[in-house]
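Wed. Picked up where I left off yesterday with Response regulator. The coffee machine is broken again, so keeping this brief.
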Amino acid sequence: MTASILIVEDEEQICKALKSILTDASYQVFIATTLKQDEIEASTRKPDLLIVDLGLPDGDGIILLHNVRQYSTVPIIVLSARDSEDSKVVALDAGADDYLVKPFGSNELLARVRAQLCRRAILPDKQDSSAIVLGNVKIDVPSQLITKHDEPVHLTKIELRLLQCLLQERGKILTQRYLLQQVWGPNYVEHPHYLRIYMARLRTKLEDEPANPKFLLTENGIGYRLAT
Ligand code: CA
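Structure written out below (tokens, as returned):
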């Protein structure tokens, strides 16, 4: 089955480029050039993934993110010329799964698309899988036993909670604010140093080379992502 992708973008050149890259990679592609058209296309086509521009003629793509997230968990990649950290954080907090700045490379775009589709594919049977593998780390889900190179690893409550948050949204960029809120609670969202300290501890315990992490990845200035 071919995955279908809805592009919401008003710039004709970019639409053409995206369509050709994605069609060549055997995806089925639909295009909407306005928020209004997106609503219609998204409801009739039921795409497997959305690629959304933020600057649309009849409104901001952020509105679209909020709207879609009220009824769907479909993966959304934002593609925007806005490259500030603030813009990325706003889009991710509004429900985007990933953020790509224009101009983009076709290989990078395809890699991000694959990661999001794969994430969605592995989500439904997440509960059934009894073991999760991260590099040389294995997590036995029923017993919560964690081993690295077959040696048991002990995580504190906070470290475990942080790892669980990353696992629940594996492949997605999670903002610092989101993680602080999930792990420590709403009073801690302005304390990113907590997160830095605990991420460093998790890497020391789980990564082979904590300074060069393979799965506990940093998204500079934005947050973290667990590699798929
Ligand atoms: Ca635009």
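Quick read: The longest strand covers residues 4-8.
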